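Final report, Chapter 2: Outcomes

The project's central promise was a pipeline that accepts a single protein chain and returns its three-dimensional structure in a standardized token representation, suitable for archiving and comparison. That pipeline is now operational. To close this chapter, we reproduce one record exactly as it appears in the project archive, with the input sequence first and the structure output second.
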Amino acid sequence: MKVRMVFLLLLLGVCLWSREFKSGAHAIAYELDKTQKSMKVVAETAYDPVKDEGDCVYTLYWNQRTKFQLQKSVPFLSLKPGTPCWIFLSLKDAEKIKKGERFSTRRIEIEAQRDGRFGFRSAQKVYAPVTPLKKGRGVIELGGKKIQFSAPENVTVFSNGTIEGLRIGESKMRVYGVFSEKKFVISRANIIVDSRKDNFDPALPNVLVAGDSISMNYEQALKKALAGKMNCRRIDGNSGDSNRGSKALPLWLGDVPGAKSRWAVVVLNHGLHDLKQKSDPKTKKFDPRHQVEPKDYAKNIDRLLKYLTSRNYKVVWCTTTPVPGSSYGLYARRKDEDLVYNKILEPVLKKYPQVTVCDLNAVVRNSKVFDEWRKGTNVHFKTEEERKLLGDAVAAAILKAAGRK
């Protein structure tokens, strides 16, 4: 009996902890109380596994030691020659720098207060002057050597800010801090400055696309197809797997209490990340475990559709596009595994007849446009013709859901 009681108490502790705000999470503040130095925020949802309920609303606190920073993304090519930067590396590329060899990085940051001490600060982090050479290529100066590297398209710039820089109900933050006396106290909040230009026509309804990199492929074609009919925007970055979607959807939507949503239609897609499996490049054998197992995937999508339809959003669900050929390694995919994930969703989708289904899987499988694509293993679409076909299909589904022509 004692053992059982201890187990239940531990489980309760885990559940309570899982519902607390987590340091490093993204959030949108929708209410400030400057007297109490508190803010109410919408953040990634924490689920109670017993009740199968989630809570995305939290109260956070700040004090005189809290640091507010403005965070924005700028093109790599806009950097001035010799700009001091933090460069984040894999262990393999860190070793290349030490040998003076060409390396690669996907993440570069610039801080407001520059530190003149150049060199490695950790095994995978170096501080050095950076000079852009051309798109995707730059050079650093370190230890008297000039070393070329493959650069990301954009770099992240941090500058000093204040809480006054928050746009209530709009500004997205990344918040760090600790719990003190049962309160989450913010140590640092990065206020993300969105540099994208929407140019929304106020006379037109808005659509939000929450999807993975396939939606990045057809984004421009979709916007072109909807021009003059609906305003269109993608979430910032990749939606990832359905586990992430289950946590982040209210944040992506900006569903703050008491405010009317901006979005007439929401396009949703998860799948290509869920179905990933590890595999051995030598034996070509796949681990039976997936990143998100099919039954859990179905449960996640059910939860997402329930959330959206219960709030009267008009929803477009895009089926997962095909995996043309098996790839191998840490983040691999098995050929045609998309069929398994689309199949398991069929009974879920029947529960929501109000959801418009855009069958992108069928579009790809039934069109000769994708004949060359089908010969490879890359799930992404690169030709203008491929992307246009996908974008047009999604646009047609959006207009149908919105009741527009």
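Archive annotation: Residues 51 and 187 are 32 Å apart (CA to CA).
This record, like all others produced under the grant, will remain available to the consortium after the project formally closes.
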